[in-house]
Amino acid sequence: MGASGAGKTTLLNTLLQRNLKGLDVEGEILVNGQNIGKGVTSVSAYVQQEDLFMGTLTVKEHLDIQAKLRLPPGTSKTEREKRVDEVMKEMLLEKPKNSRIGIPGIKKGISGGEMKRLAFATEMINNPPIIFCDEPTTGLDSHMSLQVVKTLEAMALEKGKTIICTIHQPSSEVFEIFDKVVFLAQGRIAFHGAIDEAIHHFSSCGYQVPDHTNPADYFIDTLAIRPSEAETCKKRCQDLCDQFEKSVYHERLLKLMDQTKEVRSMTPHHSASYFTLLMALFHRYMLDNIRNPAIMKAKLIQKLFMGLFIGLLFYQLDVDQDGLTGYKGALFYYISELTYSTIFGIQAFMPADYPPLVREYDDRIYPISAYYIAKILSFLPIFTVDGIVLVLSSYFFVGFPISFWTFLRQMFTCMIIEWNVAALGIAVCATAPSYAIAVTVTGPLLTVFSLTGGLFTNVSEMHAWISWVQYLSWFRYGYESLVVNQFEHEKFANITCQGMDLNGMKARVPDSICEESGSTVVRNFSFNADNLYTNWMAMIYLTIVIYVIGYVGLVRRVIANR
Ligand SMILES: Nc1ncnc2c1ncn2[C@@H]1O[C@H](COP(=O)(O)OP(=O)(O)OP(=O)(O)O)[C@@H](O)[C@H]1O
């Protein structure tokens, strides 16, 4: 305990060997007499102040997934289910087990107290002997705070756990539950011992708790640095810390520390196998994608709507010069539709994954690669199905050739385009430090790639110093494949040299501008009919390279954040 700025969080971080960048830490941290460094994570749990859950999951689903992530390899399904039932019972979560967790202030879910107990339940799954908690009662009313601290007490008394907890403004009832309390002031220890002893010690230093006053409030107030009288407060804190160092309580503390140097055994917990981690994370993200109406439902409805719109706009195009403009536009539109909504859809939702990822990575629950692969796999079905919906809902209206293989190639090209786009969306999100930066980078990138896609600029006419950009663009690869696939079909073997004249009547266009066959269209774009499949390979290759770059960016970002 201590006033704001006393060093509580720093002490917890030091014990847990986290977020110590820029700090000069001295001394030794021993767990059962052993200096295990960052290994402290494998014998402890850390319940942080802010609860980070996936609000779309139910309490039970969340715990099931956490059990898969946290229980050691070789744990059977029955054992896992038994453990989940046990922690739900211990943490009084049986009643809300099938309720969605929710997102405070956004989507209604379980109560604040239940959420805190769920945070404990999550950390308790693998039965760690030590539990660190950072201000577990923050944001809870007095009744819920008491319930949470009683739960902690039960863990200590009934399960023999060591609980190290920072606490902010506890009520007298809550304060009395703690066995031992450490008061911090300006990074130093102002007191360590039982609550009665604290009252006695502070009183002997001239700070008697007044009647009808919560001792916790009084001590924190005594140790606080008030800006208006900073120097006096600092001096008071220094005096109290000095007096503690001369007290019997300090002597006892030194003896206790000597005893803890005796080496005792401990059993670190092991994480699940890589495959189990991957499957559990995939399950979690799939459930979230399916439950989140803005991801799954909205995308499918949007693609259906846009597909029908394309179908109506380009309904049964003629095979003449005007029709050609429509066919070319419709094909390019497919790529745009698959690009913009996909990339911005990903960027709207993926940043929310980052805080839990950093936390769970710090807790050594899974490696970053497991998250990254699971995330990619969970997006893959959505960004495959919606492309199929788009093509299915428009293809036959537009008047593209009724040919099984042409249809299938068109669908497949669209699928690969969307995989490529999804890769860029995920990679930019993984690498960019914030959503705003991700969107700012993505906008111009899309403009550059669409401009070099072949519709606005002829691919052979670009200046040598800029034309290389087209080889990074799925617009370029995708458009060439779509154009070749359509215009090399026999439907376009002969194209009427007719177009609309100034009076709105069909008239013959001059031979010099007439594209009399699909092959001419392909040639005029400077596209190559042999590139249809090569482009698929190029897009798949590009997808993989982008994913790798995104992975490296994510790892750098997470590690830099520690
Ligand atoms: N033992 C220490 N020696 C020197 N500086 C310290 C020590 N402990 C903490 N500090 C510094 O004091 C400042 C406040 O520390 P910290 O954030 O841990 O306080 P806190 O008690 O958690 O405050 P709050 O309740 O407001 O979160 C930080 O700049 C930290 O680096």
TrEMBL record:
Keyword Transmembrane: yes
Topology within the bilayer: Multi-pass membrane protein
Recorded superkingdom: Eukaryota
Major location (coarse): membrane
Any one Pfam family match given in the protein's UniProt record, by short name: ABC_tran
SMART domains from the UniProt entry: AAA
Span of domain ABC transporter: 1-211
Keyword terms, alphabetized: ATP-binding, Membrane, Nucleotide-binding, Transmembrane, Transmembrane helix, Transport
Record GO terms (molecular function): ABC-type transporter activity; ATP binding; ATP hydrolysis activity
Transmembrane helix as UniProt keyword: yes
Listed GO CC annotations: plasma membrane
Transmembrane segments: 300-319, 331-352, 420-441, 533-554
Compartment(s) where it occurs, according to its Swiss-Prot or TrEMBL record: Membrane
Annotated SUPFAM superfamilies: P-loop containing nucleoside triphosphate hydrolases
Record-stated family: Belongs to the ABC transporter superfamily. ABCG family. Eye pigment precursor importer (TC 3.A.1.204) subfamily.
PANTHER family hit by this protein: ABC TRANSPORTER DOMAIN-CONTAINING PROTEIN, ABC TRANSPORTER G FAMILY MEMBER 28
Identification of the protein by name: CBN-WHT-8 protein
Organism: Caenorhabditis brenneri
Upper taxonomic lineage: Eukaryota, Metazoa, Ecdysozoa, Nematoda, Chromadorea
Gene from which the chain derives: Cbn-wht-8
